[in-house]
Amino acid sequence: MSVAIAEIAEGVLRCVSRENVVFFVVVDSDRPPAARGRPANGGIRIQEYPDEAAAIREAHSLAERMTHKQALYNTGFGGVKIVVCASPAGLDKRTLMDAIAQVLHTLQGSVYTGCDLNTDDQDMRYLAQQSPYVLAGIGSDIDPSEATASGVYGTILGAVGTDEIRHKRFLVHGIGKVGLAIAQRLTACGAGILSYDMVPERANHPGFYNVSDCSEWWRLPFDVLVLCSASNMVTPAIARQLPCQAVVGSANQPFDDTKAVAAILEERNILWIPDIVSSAGAVISDSIEHYAPDVFRHAEPAAIYAFISHLTCGKTQHLLEKYRRGTAMSEVLTSQIYREHVGSVCGLTFQLTQPFSVQPPQYAQEEYTHV
Q1: CB 79 within 8 A of CB 16
Q2: Where in this chain does the record put each Glutamate/phenylalanine/leucine/valine/L-tryptophan dehydrogenase C-terminal domain (predicted)?
Q3: Nearest-5° angle of CA 116, CA 170, CA 158?
Q4: Which CATH class is domain 4-130?
């Protein structure tokens, strides 16, 4: 075997490829009832880390969040994260995917994977040729980015209300594939969009007002912050200055200190929807792909996206109902994550003939010319 594999702790594999690229496969061992006896599922992240200990810490944190996300929606998976300790620049991704495929084979179906930071559909298509343990909509018209965007969109509908979207101004932070898809859906509903991206030209789209040249974007006037960029974006200092009514998004671990930032937002009566609620679109799609493969292959993408929005909208409304009764959001989440699920995993509840619609009316949208 061209990959050296060593289990350095429970659920932690240290792997070294033939090219001496180090990566870790970290499976979360704390399984809620919904995840016990199920395979783990989580994406491949390529990133430079200060040292291997930092990579393992992040992988543990992300794997745990994946477990919670999977349990919240009863996807039929536990959580795992594969982190590659390397710069994506100049990395031979094909040889890396060959190495990851070998590790997946040794795990014999106990771990499935897909895209994450600095990996893309092309990488997954190649990996899927080497291993059957890939869930990324390969061979279908399903776009994992659109699936993720559908989850965030449903969460926004649940938090803001379908009739209120056109009266709100959203700052979408990060105009990649997911952020763009969310912003375009909101624009179609009549919302105002402030777009921000570290690469300013990405934020130039019809109907958007590009605010990427504003270094202190959190001081701008907006109603809802939609985080679709890097992790750890909102610090306690930023949280104290946010002008908005709500925070939602697709970014994993959007707060650099979750407890501190969450406490500040709650103290300021700013509604925040945890990322494990809003960013579940791709894992819901994975659940259909894995547990109902024939249905998945024949489904129209729009039907799956609507199903995802339906689930995240309903979950958001359910959580907020409990939250508004005075229960802390962390307690609401814990009770939902560790509850016993009754019935099938969510992927088996999707039906080709059952319509799901959470789409509000379409409104004409004029481009913002001022902030």
Answers
A1: no
A2: 142-322
A3: 75
A4: alpha beta
